[in-house]
Write a structure and sequence with these properties.
The complex is a heterotrimer of chains A (180), B (134) and C (238).
Chain A: H1 2-11, E1 15-17, H2 18-35, H3 39-65, H4 73-89, E2 93-96, E3 102-107, E4 116-117, H5 129-141, E5 144-152, E6 161-170
Antiparallel strand pairs in A: 2-3, 3-6, 5-6
Helix pairs in contact in A: 1-4, 3-5
Chain B: E1 2-8, E2 14-19, H1 28-48, E3 59-61, E4 66-71, E5 77-82, H2 89-104, H3 119-133
Antiparallel strand pairs in B: 1-2, 1-5, 3-4, 4-5
Chain C: E1 2-3, E2 14-16, H1 17-31, H2 52-55, H3 63-74, H4 92-108, H5 118-134, E3 140-143, E4 148-153, H6 192-209, E5 213-220, E6 227-235
Helix pairs in contact in C: 3-4, 4-6
The chains are: A alpha+beta (180), B alpha+beta (134), C alpha+beta (238).
């Protein structure tokens, strides 16, 4: 695993100080809160933007890590935890309670929430919802339809940041000559 | 020696084509048609496999040329036509995938699945081709 | 979201630049693509008098951070969009840049004792700040000595993956099967001007934090990764 981590940060391309990323994300969330009517709408928007990012990010990941195939949910989830988070956010993630269709992923650290405190009135805001969208968008590109939710959130008093992932279905690769 | 490169999106649409040699003479319509036919042919080949998990044609050897196909897990095909027994074509295709990730997907003007018209990608590709040929 | 001004400076974590690049692209697709004046982005500061108190002290420590950030946010409240003199279309990008600029300006200037004058601050922007964020210095700085500075960057980092070659020509449809899976939320075509709104705001934010009110606009020079930012000082550092 540690070797994978090393590989991850060396092939990831240019590294930047995460401050710029974190603060820019903060500015985006704040702006969406001003623009949209409710925190719930902001959650949706963040999720959508995340999905669009995931769709592009996955090719960046695959091209740089030379990953040829993620055959199943378990494999994909492990790849995300072992390599993906390290490579893109510079953090370690651990998969717990893994099954064929469901798992939890614990992040040891989450740069997105540096500097952030959630006021009480924003309780419904899922500040890091972008991450859920990114993972969903990325896995959809490799034929897996998943649902990702934030199950533990330090911004809401939990100790660790945790994602709950659930496989909904494998999308069959398109075969252009299906009989009908 | 590389003769030409095709990039086909996951729906079978040709999104990029370039000739590296004056030998290759196909007009735009031909390339579009051939690109999407290759997509289908590739799908058939994986269906033909009696063994599950087949990734389809990776190399097609003909009398006068080789066709190397690299399909990403996201379903994009990068394939190159080269002279028989050319070396380094597979590595070249993976490099092109990298260039695609950097100069196409990160180009704010690029819309996904659409034809690639990115100067920077063209430029980088040119130098990659030069590298591969030497 | 209260930002914790103090006690967080220790963290120097790294992430892949890809993350930032793709986030910015999404922000541009969401807030850009609306009509602008050619490739020029112009924004006007709409500072209210209440912010003067905080900006009179260009260098503040700890506590000042707390005060200044909210003031930056007030600058473009929700109701102000499109209303104020600077509320041009799509200025979301500019104001997000402004917010980040204020925060980064604060962070990156911490090690500096003080600034002599406006020129000193602009130099800080062109050297130290630019190096932190864009990994190189501004290539050329010009001024008319009457409050206008032109910053020229021959390879502006945030344009390095942008190819202007207009996409999606008319004959594209033939090959464009299966579009729509990407689901761009964009309302229109992204322009180069859209790409530069965020950095314009960023620059304005840095200067604002250091006590200068300015108007920042950007132009793409002859070819793409090169661009220049014009800073018109409205109120000098005290």
């Amino acid at each position: 695993m540690s070797s994978k981590g090393k590989v991850a940060s060396s092939v990831a391309g240019e590294r930047i100080n995460s401050e710029l990323f974190t603060l820019t994300y903060g500015a985006l969330v704040r702006h969406l809160l001003l623009d949209l009517e409710s925190p719930e709408e902001v959650n949706k928007q963040l999720d959508r933007m995340g999905q669009n990012i995931g769709v592009r990010l996955v090719d960046d990941f695959l091209a740089k890590t030379n990953t040829t195939r993620c055959r199943n949910f378990k494999e994909a989830v492990k790849t995300i935890a072992d390599t993906g988070f390290k490579m893109f956010l510079g953090i370690d993630a651990k998969v717990t309670q893994i099954g064929d269709k469901e798992c939890k992923m614990v992040l040891n650290d989450n740069p997105l929430i540096d500097f952030v405190e959630l006021p009480e009135k924003l309780e419904p805001l899922s500040y890091c919802n972008l991450l859920c969208g990114v993972i969903r968008g990325a896995l959809e590109q490799v034929s897996m339809k998943v649902e990702v939710l934030i199950s533990k959130d330090p911004l809401k008093g939990d100790e660790r940041f945790e994602l709950h992932m659930k496989l909904l279905e494998y999308i069959n690769e398109e075969y252009p000559f299906a009989d009908d | 020696m590389l003769l030409s490169l095709f990039v086909v999106n996951k729906s079978g649409g040709l999104i990029y084509h370039r000739n590296f040699s004056s030998l290759a003479k196909l007009d735009t319509n031909d390339t579009l048609r051939l690109g999407s036919m290759w997509h289908s042919l590739h799908a058939i080949s994986s269906q033909l496999s009696p063994v599950p998990g087949c990734k389809g044609i990776e190399l097609l050897e003909a009398e006068t040329f080789d066709l190397h196909n690299f399909q990403t897990p996201t379903g994009i095909k990068f394939f190159a036509v080269a002279e028989c027994k050319s070396h380094g074509v597979d590595r070249f295709l993976k490099r092109v995938y990298n260039l695609y990730a950097d100069y196409v997907l990160k180009n704010p003007f690029y819309e996904l699945d659409m034809p690639i018209r990115c100067e920077l990608f063209d430029l980088q590709l040119t130098s990659e081709v030069t590298l591969t040929m030497n | 979201m209260e930002k914790q001004g103090q006690g967080q400076e220790g963290r120097r974590g790294e992430c892949a630049e890809t993350c930032f690049d793709l986030l910015l692209i999404e922000m541009i697709h969401l807030y850009g693509g609306r009509p602008t004046q050619g490739t020029t982005t112009t924004t006007t500061t709409t500072t209210t008098t209440t912010t003067n108190a905080t900006e009179a002290t260009p260098k503040a420590n700890g506590g000042g951070v707390q005060e200044r950030r909210p003031s930056g946010a007030q600058e473009r409240g929700p109701g102000e969009a499109g209303a104020g003199p600077g509320g041009g279309p799509g200025d979301g990008l500019e104001s997000m840049g402004f917010q980040v600029g204020c925060q980064l300006g604060e962070r990156y200037s911490k090690s500096r004792a003080s600034f002599d004058d406006t020129l000193d601050i602009v130099k800080f922007l062109c050297k130290d700040f630019w190096t932190e964020v864009f990994r190189k210095q501004v290539d050329n700085l010009k001024t008319n000595h009457r409050g206008v500075f032109v910053l020229y960057d021959s390879k502006f980092r945030w344009l390095r993956s942008a190819s202007a070659g207009k996409m999606m020509g008319d004959n594209a449809s033939a090959a464009a099967v299966g579009a729509g899976s990407g689901g761009q939320p964009g309302q229109g075509k992204t322009t180069v001007g859209d790409l530069l709104r965020f950095p314009c705001g960023l620059i304005r934010g840095v200067l604002f934090t250091l006590g200068i009110k300015a108007v920042v606009s950007a132009d793409v020079a002859s070819s793409l990764p090169a661009c220049s930012f014009t800073v018109k000082i409205q109120q000098q550092a005290k």
